[in-house]
Amino acid sequence: MNTSDFLIQCIQRFGVNGWAVRNFHNLQHSNLSRQLKEGILFMCEKLFHLLIMILGERYQPGIGKCTLQQFYEREIIHLLYLDNASFADIKEAIPHASYKEIKEALDRVSDLVIFTDISNVTTEKYKLKEAFVDQINPFYYHYSSPQYNQAGYIRRERASTSITSCLPPKAPEFEDNLKPILRIFKHPLFVQLLFNAIDRYDQRNEFSSERLLRRAMFLMAMALEEELNGSLKHPTNEPSFSQQAESLEIFKLLGSDFESKNETLIILSQWIMEKFDELKNPQRFAEISLQDVIMQE
Asked: Is the domain of 276 the same as that of 218?
């Protein structure tokens, strides 16, 4: 299946054919009930969430270039991000992993902490090491709805002290036979979907929401990261993701005039603009990086 067919089938499967049209929000929708409008938005959020999982969840041997141990480590990282947990709790959450595999993963990504309650009963629990927080994906595919909401709350709380908590985590490369999946990032229909979500939010249109905007910006950040590391290079002369986004003026929407009460979105928009500037001016950023290296020496 080619990329166009895949995206079109996803749009049809979620029933958001109309929303995907660029001028959909300018049409008359007085005959649509509030419940139906909210349903359209909900299905758009589900579509964007699916794209995040397809493009970003690669910590699985055979899908991404990683080991089974790295897969278990990532499972544990996302569990401990929500709360400290005992060994028994972790083993229950990952029943297919052996004692040895879980222990090795815990030794790498966590610290053992002793808790004592008012009855002087001690409990051993594992706490996530700070160095692994930047590997958190708030849209992690194994999170339940309550866990997703909890991760979002923690993310917002950490936004003021940790920029990386607002950004997509770096993912391993896809296995060679699955690398064509990355073509989604450069497909005009994908870029159009992002534009629809961001532009309609900018206009405070009823067919937009902060939840949908968050997913659109997250996907945009993922695409820019892939473009910067060279993963989206293709032998043809087709326009890059950033070129298509620029032609739709998406970056203008996320520039200095972007407004949101959500600090994570502000930080994400600033990061997106910095990466866009880096793509537009690679020589200048190469010189800055060289100066940093010289200063460190």
From this structure: yes
